[in-house]
Fold this protein.
Amino acid sequence: MRRSLARCVPLGFLTALACGPASDDATLTGGAVRPDGVAFAIGDPPHEQIVRSTHGVVVSQAPFASAAGAHILSIGGNAVDAAVATAFALTVVEPGNSGLGGRTQVLVRQPDGTLDAVDGTNQVPASYPADTVVGADLTSGYGMIGIPGTVAALATVLDRHGSLPLATVIAPAVALAEQGFPLGEDQAAALARVADDLRL
C-alpha cells in the first residue's frame, strides 16, 4: 500500500522531514539553496548550522547521499521515498559504513501516531554450526558475514509507505555508482587500509 507521509521518518543514520516537493521557502545558514528550492550544504558544516523548510530536509553523513534524497523530495516523493533514496546512495558513497551487505532497522511513524517497524537485521543460516565460531577470529573473512538485510528492509518500507517506484528511488544511487564521485578523505583512508585485501 502506498501512502503519503507528513511526519519524520528516522532511518538510523538519516532523517527526511516532511513530504512533498521542495519550494522556494527553504533557507540554510552556512549553505545554499538550489533553484528547485532544496537547501543543501557540501563539506563539513558548522555545528550550529540551521536549516529551515516547510517542505523537506534530508540529512546524512554524505553530501551526495543527502542530495539523492533531496532530489527525490523535489520530484514529489514523500519522506520514506527520500529516506530510502538516501540510504541506497549511502551504500554507494560510504559502503564501509552503510553497505548493501549490512543490516538496517527502520521505524516509520504515521501522521496518526501509529508505528511500523521493519527489521533488516542480518541472519545466520539455521544449519550454520555454532561451534565453528568459538575462539575464531571474527574480525574479517567469511565467518563473520551474515545474510544481509538492508536491501529487503529498504524495499519493504518503500513498498509499505513510499509513493514512488523502487526504480525511481534508486536511480540517484545507480547514477553515482555508474558515473563515479570524488571520494572524501574518510572513504579514501578506509580504502587505503584494505587496499591489499581488495587486490586480485
